[in-house]
Amino acid sequence: MSSNKKITMRQLQILIILSAMGTGVIVLPRRAADFLPEGAQDGWVIAIGLTLIAIVVGILISAAARAAQSAAEYTLSENLNETKSPQDLSFIDSVSILLTKPFAYVLGIIMWAKLVIAAGLELRIFLEISRDIMLPNTPAYVISAVMIGACAYAAAKGLETRARVAEVLFALLILPILFLFTIAVLDADFTNLQPVLVNDVHSLVRGSVRLGFILTGLECLLLVSAYVPREKSLGRAVVGALGVAGVLIICITVITIASFGSGLSNEPWPVIGMMDVINLPGSFIERQEALMFGFWIVTAFALGNAMLFFGGLLVTDIFKKAKLSTGVILSALGVFGVSILPIDRETVYAQMDFMYATTGIFFLVVLPIALLIAAKITIWGRNKILAKTIAFMIFLAFAITLLVGCWDSTEIENRAFVVAMGVDKSEENYSVTLSIPIMDEDGKDEDEDEEIPAHIKTSEGQTITEALKKLDAKNDKNLYYGQTKLIILGTNLLESEEFLRGTLNTITNAMKSPRRIHVLAAEDPSKILSTKPPAEILPGSYVGDIYRDKNKIGGHAFALDFERLSSMSDAIIPKIERNDDELRLSGAVVLKKSCKTGIISPEELQGLLWCFPRGNTGAVVTAENISMKIEKHKTNISFHPGETDSPLRAVIEIKATGTVDEISETAQESVEMREHLENIFTAAIKKEISATAELLQNEHGVDGYNLLEHLRKKNYPLYKQYADNWHEIFPKIEIVPQVTVVV
After folding, report:
1. Taking 70 as the threshold, does the pLDDT of residue 51 lie above it?
2. Of 417, 433, 435, which Cα lies nearest the Cα of 542?
3. 621-651 pLDDT, tens per residue?
4. Residue ranges of E strands in 581-730
5. How far apart are CA 293 and CA 130, in angstroms?
6. CA separation for the pair 739, 736 (Å, rounded)
7. Whole-model pTM?
8. What is the CB-side half-sphere exposure of residue 584 using CA atoms within 13 A?
9. Interhelix angle 140-156/324-339, nearest 10 degrees
């Protein structure tokens, strides 16, 4: 640990892992979906492809860096007039010896510019995420200056300081992330990864190559050879680090796809947003995605710190009298300028793709190959002019490629956090209700003892926008929707397709970015939101918590999110009712072509919930005046070609486990009684499923079972055959329940 300007291989590996887990990983699943025409479920293949590409490139760069250093030392030892020690050779020194000084200096300047621009664009993505999730009204230049200042301070202290800081940050980062993603696995639906490999090989390869911008910073390995032990294999260390980073990236991508499914393409930052929908045991955090982003700040710091350090190092290598701190400051100013350019997100992605396709490919592939060739020629003792000529030709080819080619922050105490929203429609006006917790200085809810909850704000208007403006005017704080967890739609509003579509569009614009907000239906949304919760629960989040623990207030339902509702014309919205001060989930509202077509009773909804994971856990099934409480159930849906008039046959296989307490201990020990109970409850569950299926098929014509989505996952050829005319196919499907009950 002495100040010898050296770091260990372990420290190098930690630096590589932290840099690889930068902002690119956050956008990887979302951008992978853009390159897959047949669905985002194959995004994990692109993650594997990127990992393999990174390992191959890492081996190539490591070999080139070591070869260039060895060849330069060989040349230096042959020239007795040189005074520089071989141990003092930097990357620019090695290239100067092998490929002439003019080429080395031009190369160094281009590499510095590439690092600065790449760091600025990466930081710009970080700024976008920061403003979307935590700091919507904070100017970008403030966030940028704070992050760059922290990165520059550590970079100016040298490589050893960076390595030691990375060891501490790695320990602080890796354990919480592993914990969070372990919890995320429990809530993920891995059937969203089906069907597997439906995208053609060309799309998968193209996506892997096009998303190579994730490898930003890997070219810095060209500069580290002089700072790690010579007796240990650089290539082996790099491969090990990239392998670990690759496994983490693949796991993150798989879990993200499993969590969002087909809705992945609508999420701007799915890796971060995924944390908002998982159930952390004992969690009191209102916005878990902000917690996740807090951990990811560490990786953004690591990547920015690396770019500034190596940018500063290049400045000192080119301008021999310059200090590292001077080079870091110059690099930091360049990164800051790029990060605050007035360009949108898609332009940032386009610029990153362009840089990767030009300078990125050059430094990751072309330059390492050129260095290997020059080093071999030098070591073999051949004509050095030939090596310099080759390098000059490569430089000319690269040059031809280049030629073608307000302070408005809002303090948290001045912000009104909307945790739930209710929207309904009367004959003339829209009615909008917001739940806005008002806390005193001691953190106590100010309306706890009031008859009329102070946290409920209601207003009417001829449009929803007008009602929202009135609500904004009534508050002395700025309305903020970043913590909204629940939207309740009135049944009167659902009577009209025009009203519903207008409402969804208005809410989308108000939220500014799509989020996975849960949706319920109610006769009177304001009455539901006005319910006083238990003292320990935050007003407004009480109703939303039924999606985490549906037994909390009684009844059963599935979770429908706002994003899914907005993308569908046919849907089933869980319904909630209030009796005195008690809330209860009670059936559902059926929408066909974005218009209410009927109501499903709680009993009919139970027949539907057998097809949802854990949908009927805790439910009660009654047969022959005996009740069984469902402890757990598993469902598998398979499809087969239909017979006679049915084009398709859907087999719903259910294995349910439950307990019966209404019989004597003697009867419980009877094998015959157990078999009898299992038979009658099997028949009862089949009857529930068949009755609901008949209702949905014949009366409503709405695929509440999501059979089309199951068909896409289980039998993609049949999905392609029937997807276009599913409205005609669904009523004709033969739905066959196959039930096994264990009492």
Report:
1. yes
2. 435
3. 888 888 888 888 888 888 888 776 778 888 9
4. 582-591, 596-600, 620-623, 626-641, 648-659
5. 8
6. 10
7. 0.65
8. 11
9. 160
